[in-house]
Amino acid sequence: MHHAEAHAQSDPAAAKVVDHPSVPQGEPELIESADKLNEFMSHVRTEGAFAFDTEFIGEETFIPNICLVQLATRSRIALIDPHALDEVALAPVWDAVCDASLLTIVHAGGQDISAAQRRTNRQAQNVIDTQIAAGFMGMPWPTSLANVVLAIADLRLNKGHTFTEWDSRPLSKSQLSYAADDVRYLPLIWQLQRERLETLNRTAWVVSESEESLRTSEEFEPESHVRRAARGLGLRPRVMTIVRELVILRYSIAQTKNLPPRTVLPDGPLLEIARHKFASTDELSQVRSLPRATTVEFGSEILRVMDAARNLPIERDRIWMSPEENAEDRTRIDALWSIITMRAISMGIATTLILTRAHLSRWYLGRGASNAPLFPVGSWRAEAIGQWLTDFLEGRETLNVGWKDGGPVAP
Q: Are residues 112 and 96 in contact, defined by beta-carbon separation less than 8 angstroms?
């Protein structure tokens, strides 16, 4: 789920801070000096665990512009203004996030953690994502912070500033309150989640998936960008290969210029370029909605990449072709998808945390050639449902579910 959506809630009613030992009380501390920040980070290290979030603007630059940093322990909460501090002063925050001796608690925190990893050049460790934890406790995945707080702690959050201009100053009292609530309840939420997860023997699964999701959020995967750009248009394999190479080039240019990739080369012009054999930058300049700055500075590179893509081996093209399901395949894959979904929901695990139908389809259609398991051996997915699925497909297991309170449950 997108960072802003993951923290969104439309209820306009602000809630009083609940009186609980794990919920910091009162107004957040606004930190605008290095001395105050260092003092607060000493407190964080004494506590050994802290909640972490950022408010940022990501629509205008490749590297999101961080406008506010929120930290909370069980007893204190701080809002750090990056506009008032330089990167040297902010370093203790990023170091703490990437310190394996400290527990960092986030909600949909991939982009927040990326900010720390980018600045320290280190991989964050010992991070728990409460959105992921909720998916192992019968809640949908992804789901918003407000929904998790309501379900776990029976508290309503006021989320009226989801799309506010966080780079404006001064921030209003309601903006600061909104930002504080993004971390205020996370120590309590994780405490309650952990207690429940331990009774279900799923804590290790949450830890594993939180770490895996952080690694995935850091990786650039051209495939997902190609599929999004192609929009299911059924493009020829060779065109898909050209799209892929242009997507990779776009990402590289965006990094260099610190611009959003779709500002450098929007999907529409990218597809038009991939479908036609342009021979000169003058011809490229006629492509509708292609930024002139891109044509002038990178037109020759775009032409070079397209020429190279046309000569790539045809085997490489085939990885972009969607698996073809005939009518019988579709019926069986749909049935298997329903079975896995029922099994997952009856266990209280969000199906979308386990796999997607597209993943299932690729495995099903290719199982004869590879004989590979659906999930990697030793992974939490294999432990949770993989062995059961193998036994089910080989006739050693059956699907037994009941129905209670409007949903399937294990008998």
A: no
- pLDDT band for 136, please (50, 70, 90 cuts): very high
Using H for helix, E for strand and C for coil, what is the string for 71-127?
A: EECCCCEEEECHHHCCHHHHHHHHHHHCCCCCEEEECCCHHHHHHHHHHHCCCCCCE
Least confidently predicted of 51-55, 169-173, 222-226, 338-342: 222-226
Residue 21 structure tokens: 């030992």
Pair of tokens at residue 369: 């050639």
Mean per-residue pLDDT for 250-260? Answer: 95
Domain encompassing residue 303: 222-320
> What does the alpha-carbon distance between residue 254 and residue 61 come to, in Å, rounded to a whole number?
8
Q: Which residue, of 193, 218, 243, is where some domain finishes?
A: 218
Q: What is the largest CA-CA distance in the chain?
A: 69
Q: Are residues 176 and 32 in the same domain?
A: yes
DSSP classification of residue 137: T
355: how many CB neighbours lie within 10 A of its CB? 17
Q: Kindly report whether the peptide bond that precedes residue 170 is cis, defined as omega within 30 degrees of 0.
A: yes
DSSP string of 44-58, one letter each residue:
HHHHSEEEEEEEEE-
Q: What is the DSSP letter of 22?
A: T
**CATH code (residue 356):** 1.10.150
The model carries a pTM of: 0.88
Strand-pairing partners, residue 408, are 403
d(CA 106, CA 182) in angstroms, rounded, equals 9
* % residues pLDDT > 70 (the chain): 91
pLDDT in tens, 191-230: 999 999 999 999 999 999 999 988 766 678 888 888 888 8
Closest CA to 107 of 143, 160, 79, 78: 143
- Whether 151 and 28 map to the same domain: the answer is yes
Question: Tokens 């690694």 identify what position?
Answer: 215
Angstrom distance (rounded) from CA 20 to CA 81:
27
296-312 pLDDT per residue, tens: 999 999 999 999 999 88
**Pairing label, strands 103-106, 127-129:** parallel
